[in-house]
Write a structure and sequence with these properties.
Strand content of chain A: 25-35%
Number of strands of chain A: 28
Distance between the termini of chain A: 58 Å
Order of helices and strands of chain B: EEEHHHHHHHHHHHHHHHH
Organism (chain B): Aulographum hederae CBS 113979
Structural class of chain B: mainly alpha
Protein name (chain B): DnaJ-domain-containing protein
CATH superfamily of the largest domain in chain A: ATPase, nucleotide binding domain
Distance between the termini of chain B: 170 Å
Number of strands of chain B: 3
Number of helices of chain A: 14
Shape of chain A: globular
Radius of gyration of chain A: 28 Å
Largest interface: A-B, 103 and 57 residues
Largest sheet of chain B: none
Largest sheet of chain A: 6 strands, mixed
Radius of gyration of chain B: 65 Å
CATH class of the largest domain in chain A: Alpha Beta
Subcellular location (chain B): Cytoplasm
Oligomer: heterodimer
GO molecular function (chain B): Hsp70 protein binding; ribosome binding
Helix content of chain A: 25-40%
Keywords (chain B): Chaperone, Cytoplasm
CATH topology of the largest domain in chain A: Nucleotidyltransferase, domain 5
Helix content of chain B: 55-70%
């Protein structure tokens, strides 16, 4: 409206672009991330494009085309982007258009126009079309054209893949503000809730997707995230669970209809079976039983069956166990104990499955919060986490200049020394063996950092000692009392559960002082006064300690710990 | 955001000593280098500190200052317009005629005011004019202006009502300049705001701008296309006559409703016509249109000129070629004529000479006594001699005749003449022009 030719402000959204599903999210005026439903009302938009006589379908409509029009339907193409033909696994595309080698990239041969001859469409072009549809949906919803996006990628996404995605997005007139890692986006989505408090924690993010699962251990220190370890399993995901159900129903079908062929041997029957199994799986995540119903499954025979959740969980037990294994494995990989973990965030569509969360609940100590719909009512929708996180990040940086974003994400800024050991004060006693170690700064805290704690003093006040130490976390294992022999005899009669309970050791996290750092004396503290201890660690590990009485008149004690001489060694 | 620790600190042991109450006894262990995830507000703060090399306290201060500034900006913004004392006396019942934007102090924003601005302006005005405050201050003004404020907010915060008001908000209109004014120059400066103001009624946003004299033909055409196909949301409900409530007669109500409807339609039509006229006028005055026409004309003419010039040249060339040809032919004819004349003359001369020579030869025959030796020649000899001389003459070409004539010239002696003739006849015989014995008289 105004006369000046001004650059319209960026409208940025968060996009979670997955192999199976994509979602788009925006941030409301109040800073709350919301996932946008597309024209069909889907918040999870299947990353599938289908072409019928030159008409393009996307999302759920395209997915239903997998049955009748599989050759012109492109699915599961995200992971092919930026790869060469040799390094891709085309298994997921078995029931859709098959990837082909085309020059240096990968393409699909589909009939995307009205002409009879199929044309070769590169995976980059497919991605562009998909992103363009997502962008249109978001623009329609927001009422203003979307120009930029933050896109989530798996942690092991290579620079080449990111570059390819960036080019594909640019072709869809979408400026990629930043690529952020999926697990970090999930943590951000939780931390950005108004009710969440800033705390130091270690989070395991289990991103259980349709075709692959990625797990990451993230240390969150003062709102800054560092990935400690990651694990990827390309053969574990929702499709594995679908497969279990498909096999189950196929067998049941064959039992009843011996004459009809195996529905898994006919492409169209297989596609129907897969679609319905997926629907059954989703229904079982919500209800205790679900109906399986396919018209003309094989040989023109309609098939209807019911399956309940316990049966399903029994069937898929193996797959569930591998999810748990993957997650516990990555904790070990990070060199941590399960007790170090503060929360587990289940992300991705497969996380809706209650059994997976319940298994995790059993495998990890009670103290850990598991954010999954089955275990925590306040959890967010796991399918939406990545998109929400991306939307929050988008709202944070959409005002930034492009250069600013680039500079901020530059390794110069992101590579930071992290504390190897925790820093804390000794309480109750100045003696290292008797005193109780209280952490001020956890291990893996990025520096520079500033942290303040208020510590109570002995009741009568007076002079107190602030003793700063480095602490090591140790796992204390307390074995239960050896069982009396009489009980041992009964063991065989008892249930396995009981047996486990009794054998279980008590494990707890204790702190051991590894190295005293400094001592400071605060004199003449009032009765019932409190001491404020502020620890400032600079980027080169110089520590400034300030200890003073809260509300006290005197200035308190300020001391400097010189930087260690061997900082360079830490880079190893 | 300090964490509270409930356990107490140890008592300072006796005999503890340190400089300035502080004793350093160790350094930190070597750090791990890790990649931070570049997401989240805390990371952005970290990046800001690291990039600008600020310490925590510096960064806190700078951020605090920036925040303070923002708040001040917010406050200073829109709502500092002075209030017109006449406006403060307004009666809320007459709300249809009140300028809602002026009441809220947004008269320089008008249709551009955002929802947020309206909200804030309302709050600010309420804080100042709340009747309770007035009462506390002891003034007895009543709450009529407060009601005006409420009414203004009611209208402006409802998008439908706001549009109705904006439709008839004359204060936002910009009067088109007169033809005279425009012709003095400044077309763009004068008409730009007119179109900008009219553009607020467009359903399609953004509205193309008038631009300046450097605008391309396409832009200008797009501009006028847009304005000739203008899709306006302007409506005139706001100026409706009040419909009496249903306690009065229904017919009366219906009558007024109908009247209102017709009035709206009429006003809408008038408005469309007015806009059309406006655009016509602008188009008429727009120098660019003339310029483009001229250019197009020049372009067309250029082609025509080129064509005509080419044709002309071709014609001239043809003419020239023709003339040249004609000249050549003429010259040729003349030279031929001259040649012919010369030839004729020579021929005549030759003929005359030959005649003369023949006469000489014949005379010589007569002088030579008709090749008769002795006395007067008999008649037969004369006849023979004359015949022979004639046949000889016919057999000789003019040159030989001339030579013969030269030989015979001055000769009067009959023998000599006969001898010459004889030699001549013998020469002719030996040249094969005559047969031996043909000349009987000379034999």
């Amino acid at each position: 409206m105004s006369g000046e030719e001004e650059v319209p402000p960026r409208v940025a959204i968060g996009i979670s672009f997955g192999n199976s599903n994509s979602s788009i999210a925006y941030t409301t005026g109040e800073g709350k991330a919301e996932v946008i439903a597309n024209e069909e009302g889907d918040r999870q938009i299947p990353s599938i494009l289908s072409y019928v006589e030159g008409e393009e379908f996307q999302g759920t409509q395209a997915k239903s085309q997998l049955v009748r029009n599989s050759a012109n339907t492109v699915a599961y193409f995200r992971d092919f982007l930026g790869q060469d033909f040799k390094s891709i696994d085309p298994t997921p595309c078995h029931q859709s258009a098959h990837p082909k080698e085309h020059e240096t990239t990968i393409a699909f041969s589909i009939r995307d126009s009205e002409s009879e001859t199929p044309s070769t469409v590169t995976v980059s072009e497919i991605t562009t079309r998909h992103l363009r549809r997502l962008k249109t949906s978001a623009s329609d919803f927001l009422g203003k054209p979307v120009t930029a996006a933050v896109i989530t990628v798996p942690t092991n996404c290579t620079d080449a893949q990111k570059e390819a995605l960036k080019i594909a997005a640019a072709a869809a007139d979408l400026e990629v503000l930043q690529f952020i890692n999926e697990p970090t986006a999930a943590v951000l989505a939780y931390d950005a809730r108004p009710e969440s408090e800033l705390s130091d924690k270690i989070t395991v993010v289990a991103d259980l997707g349709g075709t692959r699962s990625d797990v990451a251990v993230i240390a969150s220190r003062g709102g800054m995230y560092s990935i400690l370890a990651t694990a990827h399993d390309y053969n574990l995901g929702g499709s594995q669970l679908d497969q279990v159900l498909m096999d189950h129903f196929a067998k049941e079908f064959l039992k009843k209809n011996k004459s009809a062929g195996d529905p898994r041997e006919n492409d169209r029957s297989l596609a129907k079976l897969k679609l319905e199994s997926e629907a059954v799986k989703k229904a079982l995540s919500l209800g205790a039983s679900a109906n399986f119903s396919v018209e003309s499954l094989a040989g023109g025979i309609d098939y209807t069956a019911t399956v309940n959740r316990s049966r399903y969980e029994l069937l898929a037990n193996k797959v569930f166990a591998s999810f748990t294994r993957l997650i516990t494995g990555v904790v070990e990989k990070a060199g941590l104990d399960v007790l170090d973990i503060d929360e587990i965030v289940c992300s991705g569509g497969t996380s809706h499955t209650p059994k997976i969360a319940n298994n995790l609940r059993a495998a990890f100590p009670e103290s850990i919060t598991i954010y999954a719909p089955a275990t925590n009512t306040s959890s967010l929708n796991p399918s939406e986490l990545a998109a929400r996180g991306a939307a929050i990040q988008a709202s944070l940086i959409q005002e930034f200049e492009k250069e600013d974003v680039e500079q901020s994400t530059h390794p110069m800024v992101t590579v930071t020394p992290h504390l190897r050991n925790a820093i804390g004060v000794l309480l109750i006693s100045g003696d290292e063996s008797k005193g109780k170690f209280k952490t001020i700064l956890e291990a893996e805290t990025p520096v520079p950092v500033r942290r303040t704690v208020h510590v109570t003093t002995p009741r009568e006040g007076g002079d107190v000692l602030v003793k700063l130490c480095e602490g090591l976390r140790e796992i204390k294992v307390t074995k239960p009392e050896p069982k009396p022999k009489a009980e041992k005899a009964d063991e065989d009669d008892e249930d396995d559960d009981d047996d486990d309970d009794e054998d279980e050791e008590t494990r707890e996290k204790v702190w051991k002082v590894s190295k005293p750092l400094a001592e400071a004396a605060v004199k003449g503290v009032k009765k019932g006064g409190k001491i404020e201890v502020q620890v400032n660690v600079s980027a080169d590990l110089e520590v400034v300690v300030i200890a003073r009485e809260v509300g006290g008149k005197n200035e308190g004690v300020r001391g400097v710990l010189s930087k260690p001489d061997v900082v360079e060694n830490g880079k190893a | 955001m300090a964490t509270q620790v409930q356990l107490p600190l140890p008592v300072l042991p006796d005999g503890w000593a340190g400089t300035n109450n502080f004793k350093a006894s160790g350094t930190l262990s070597a750090p791990n280098q890790r990649n931070l995830e570049p997401v989240g507000p805390h990371f952005l703060a970290h990046a800001r500190r690291k990039r600008h090399k600020r310490t925590f306290s510096e960064d806190d201060r700078i951020q605090a200052q920036e925040n303070v500034k923002k708040v001040e900006d917010d406050d200073a913004g829109e709502i500092s317009e002075p209030e017109d004392p006449v406006m403060l006396q307004r009666d809320a019942k007459d709300w249809k005629n009140q300028d809602h934007y002026a009441v809220l102090g947004l008269s320089k924003y008008r249709y551009r005011a955002t929802e947020d601005q309206i909200k804030r302006a309302h709050r600010k005005k309420v804080l100042r004019h709340h009747p309770d405050k007035k009462a506390a201050a002891g003034s007895d003004e009543g709450d009529s202006f407060f009601k005006c404020i409420q009414k203004a907010t009611e209208v402006l915060s409802d998008p439908v009502k706001r549009r109705q008001f904006d439709s008839v908000d004359e204060a936002a209109d910009v009067e088109p300049p007169s033809k005279k004014q425009t012709q003095k120059g400044n077309f763009y400066k004068l008409w730009g705001p007119v179109f900008r103001a009219e553009g607020r009624f467009s359903k399609a946003q953004p509205v193309p701008q008038l631009g300046n004299d450097k605008a391309t033909k396409e832009d200008v055409e797009k501009f006028y296309d847009f304005w000739y196909n203008f899709d306006s949301w302007r409506s005139f409900e706001y100026q409706d006559e009040d419909v009496p409530d249903d306690t009065e007669s229904r017919d009366q109500r219906r009558h007024i409703e109908k009247k209102n409807m017709n009035a709206r339609k009429k006003k809408k039509t008038e408005d469309t016509a007015r806009l059309r006229g406006l655009v016509d006028q602008a188009l008429d005055l727009d120098e660019r249109i003339k310029k483009f026409k001229k250019e197009a004309h020049a372009e067309k003419n250029k082609k025509r000129f080129e064509k005509e010039a080419a044709e002309k040249k071709a014609k001239e060339d043809a003419q020239k070629a023709k003339e040249e040809e004609a000249k050549l032919t003429k010259e040729k004819e003349e030279s031929e004529k001259a040649d012919r004349a010369a030839g004729k003359k020579a021929k005549e001369a030759a003929k005359n000479a030959a005649k003369k020579n023949k006469r000489v030869v014949r005379a010589a025959v007569k002088d030579g006594n008709y090749f008769y030796s002795g006395g007067d020649a008999p008649a037969s000899q004369i006849e023979h001699a004359l015949n022979d001389a004639d046949s000889l003459i016919t057999k000789l070409d003019p040159d030989e005749l001339a030579a013969l004539t030269a030989k015979l010239n001055g000769k009067t002696d009959g023998g000599e003449i006969t001898k010459i003739f004889k030699e001549e006849s013998e020469r002719l015989v030996s040249a094969g022009k005559a047969q031996a014995g043909e000349f009987k008289s000379l034999a």
